[in-house]
Amino acid sequence: MAALFFLSASCWLEGSETPRCPEPRPNEKYCVDASYQCYNIHESFCANGQWSCESWATHPPAPPEFEDWAWRCEVYSCYAQGIPRWPIDPWPEAAPYTPPDPASLTGEWALIADSDDIIAPGCEKQPRQYARGVTLAVDPTNPDVMYTGFYTEKWAAKRWVTGVFKSIDGGRTWFEARANLGIHGVPMPDVPGPSVRRLFIVPNDPQRLFASVEYYGLYQTRDGARTWEFVDVWPGYYLEVGPAGKGPNGTFYVSSGGALFASTDDGVTWSQRSLLPVYYLRWIWSFYFDRRYPDRIWAGTMPGPDSPPTEGYIYLSDDAGYTWIELGRGLASSGISAMDACGFDPDQMAAAGGSLYLSSDGGMTWRRAPTTVEGKGTVSFVKYAPLPDRCRLYASDAGWHSLQWTEDGGATWHMETKQWLDDVFFNPFVPEMMVGISVDGNRAFELWAKE
After folding, report:
1. Phi-psi region of 74 (alpha: psi -120 to 50; beta: other; left: phi over 0)
2. Whether residue 100 has pLDDT greater than 70
3. Do residue 62 and residue 189 come from a single domain?
4. What is the DSSP letter of 346?
């Protein structure tokens, strides 16, 4: 009866004594079955200019069909943003990795998983899963092990997954890996579950990851995401926690707005290292570390609360983040979301910031690169392939929803796939194998792999 009352009550407009029929919303959906039909509860049945609460469509079927009807028509819904105190039991462990025979590779891209493969406990009966993956981390010692961070907006329904999920079979199946992630508490009202903006996997200790969780702060795991713990970096820093990383000097870094924090004792204690010269104008959005210079940090920035276009978007520190040099002044950028350098020639660098920016002198000067193959040139992600004899740059083109590559500084481009992919990872054992998450696919989360 509670479900029926809820359906009837939803027919009335707030503040109105009589029901009326507003224009149907573009995203109105109907749930249809061979034997019965029901409307989406957010769009009540409208007839003769009024909401019809007596229509047959408001009456659910009798058991045993009722439960199926209620899940499909969203009378029942799950809470997918929980913060579990304990990991799933038994905890799945990855098998030792065996690289495939390169001769067996097809070179074709395939959809490996999507939102329906991300099932939060309690949501198993929900016919459609809701998960927006925004960051991917892959174990470099065992590429079958992957982690995805999920994000949702404040206005989104609670059925949208947040937190971290893990795969140990190359992304084909996923399980919850978010025990205690966000346990520190929510500092602001109406904040959804722990939305993970970024994941950083420590290269020389792949069981250890850092998760930048919006409004909740920085969390780390030392056991492959089985459990998470809050990292007490600085009072209030968690409101705008940025990327985390580890420099060649062994120092851990994390940003908050335009502030840089560092730990030199393996993440036990943290201190504020510096503020960018234009702290309120530029916020740190991405890091790149040059293995040739242990104390060198590159910081890609995004506009802060009050950002005139004359300030640069790329900053360089050669003293482990104590002082900064502004570079990239004049770049017509919306913010540098990713930076990388070529392993074969580290003086060749790339930055994604709406447009594609390249440097051939180790980042001292930057230029806007020629447009990508389809002429759109809206670049959101860059990554150099780990090739031993040349610099091949991959760029994600948001304008044409594709991943493309160039070996001549952008003079000519080649289409890799008609998928707009971010966080592209190259298998270190078989570099021809690639994996990435779709930014704007048919579902809010799609994992694609070149096999």
Report:
1. left
2. yes
3. no
4. T
Amino acid identity for residue 312 in this structure: G
Q: How many domains does the chain divide into?
A: 2
Q: How far is CA 69 from CA 2, 76, 118, 262, 370, in A?
A: 15, 9, 22, 53, 54
Q: Is residue 283 part of a domain?
A: yes
Alpha-carbon distance 345 to 340, whole Å?
Answer: 11
Q: Is omega for the bond preceding 243 within 30 degrees of 0, making it cis? A: no
Sheet strands (E) in 367-443: 367-368, 379-384, 393-397, 402-406, 414-417, 421-426, 434-438
Please tell me the distance from the alpha carbon of residue 132 to that of residue 419, in angstroms, as a whole number.
16
Residue 351's nearest CA partner among 365, 254, 249 is 365
Domain-embedded: residue 322? yes
- Asked whether 259 and 208 are in contact (CB, 8 A), the reply is no
**CA–CA gap between residue 438 and residue 444 (Å, rounded):** 8
Per-residue pLDDT band at 397 (split at 50, 70, 90): confident
Query: Which of 168, 171, 179, 182 lies closest to 226 in space, CA to CA?
Result: 179
Share of the chain above pLDDT 90, in %: 60
Q: CA dist 239 to 212, 214, 236, 267, 349, Å? A: 11, 7, 6, 20, 31
pTM: 0.85
In this prediction, residues 146-171 reach a mean pLDDT of 94
Amino acid identity, residue 122?
A: G
Same domain, 63 and 130: no
pLDDT confidence of 197, banded at 50, 70, 90?
very high
Amino acid at 425: F
Assess if residue 165 is contained within a domain.
yes
Is residue 402 within 8 A of residue 448, CB to CB? The reply is no
Are 151 and 240 within one domain? Answer: yes
Helix, strand, coil shares of the chain as percentages rounded to 5? 5, 35, 60
pLDDT-derived band at 10, boundaries 50, 70, 90: very low
Run of H or E including 256: strand 252-256
Report d(CA 158, CA 79) in Å as an integer: 5
In whole angstroms, what is the distance from residue 175 CA to residue 195 CA?
17
Q: Which helix (H) or strand (E) holds 9?
A: helix 2-9
Q: How far apart are CA 311 and CA 254, in angstroms?
A: 22
Amino acid at 28: E
Mean pLDDT rounded to a whole number for the chain:
83
CA distance 411 to 426: 24
CATH code at position 187? 2.130.10.10
